[in-house]
Amino acid sequence: MYSPNLGRFSACDPIYVTKSHPANPQRWNVYVYVFNNPLNKIDPDGRKPQIIDVYIAFDNYSADQIKKIKEDLRKLVDGKKFTVNVYDWAQSTPDNVAESLRSKGRTVIFAGHINGGDGGETGELRSDGNPKTAAHSLVLNGGILRSDGIYRYDSQGNLNRVNSERIRAESIFAFSCGLTPEAASQFASRMQKGGTFVYSDGGDDTGTEIGVTVSYAGWAVGLIGKGVRPTQAAEVIQNVSDSFEAQGVAFQKGDNIIPCQSNGTCAEKRHKLTPK
Which residues are CB-neighbours of 90 under 8 A, at least 6 positions away? Predict the structure, then answer.
C-alpha cells in the first residue's frame, strides 16, 4: 500500500538483496515498488520469478525444435511467477548443470539418456522382449551426472569428478530409460531438507520413445508452473503414463515415476495393470 504521508510504499519486499541489485541501484531502496511505476507494472508478491531449468539432452533435436519446445513450455506457466529456461544438447554441459543444481529453490528437469557404461539389466523385460536396463548416471555433453556428483571427460576420455557439492535445487525431475533406485536415493539424500527427486525407473514408455521422455518434461513444467508440489506432480505424470494403455499401446509394464525425499527414501514402486 502507498502511504501519501510518508511519500513511499508502506511495506518492503520480502527479498531485500539479489544479484541484480548492483546493476540497478534503485533496488537498494527497499520501499520502491516496481521502480515507482505502478501504473504500468505490477509485482504480486515481491519475489523474483521461480526458475525452471529444462535440459533436453538429446543431440538429435534441431535448433528449431528446441525453439518450439521453449515457446510451448513458456506458455504453460505464469510468466510473472516463473521463468523457464530450455537448454539443448550443446548446452547440457557439466558446468551448466552444476550451476542449476547449486541454485537454491530452483526446479531442474532433465530429459536424456542413461549412461550405458554403468548400466545393467533389471531382470524385467520390455514388451518387445528386450531386457530393461537401469543406470547410476545420466549422460551430459562432455560428462555425466552421477548420483554422487558431476563428472567431466578429460582429453584422454577419462572421467573425473568435478563437482560433488550439496544440491540446493528444490526439486529435480530426471526422465530417461531408467535410474536404479539406489542412484535415485543417493540423489535425493544430497538435496537440501525438503527437496524432492523424481525419476522414471525405466519402462517401454521412455525406453523406446525419446519424444515421450520430452513430454514428461513438459508435463512437469506445466504442473510445477501451476504450483503443484513435486510429489503430486509425480503422481499426475504416473497417471498420464498409465493412460497410454487406453490408447492401445502394447506395453507390458510402463515406467514408474517415483518421487524420493531428501532423506533418501523413495515412494513404493507401482506397475501398470496388464494391457488391454
Answer: 141
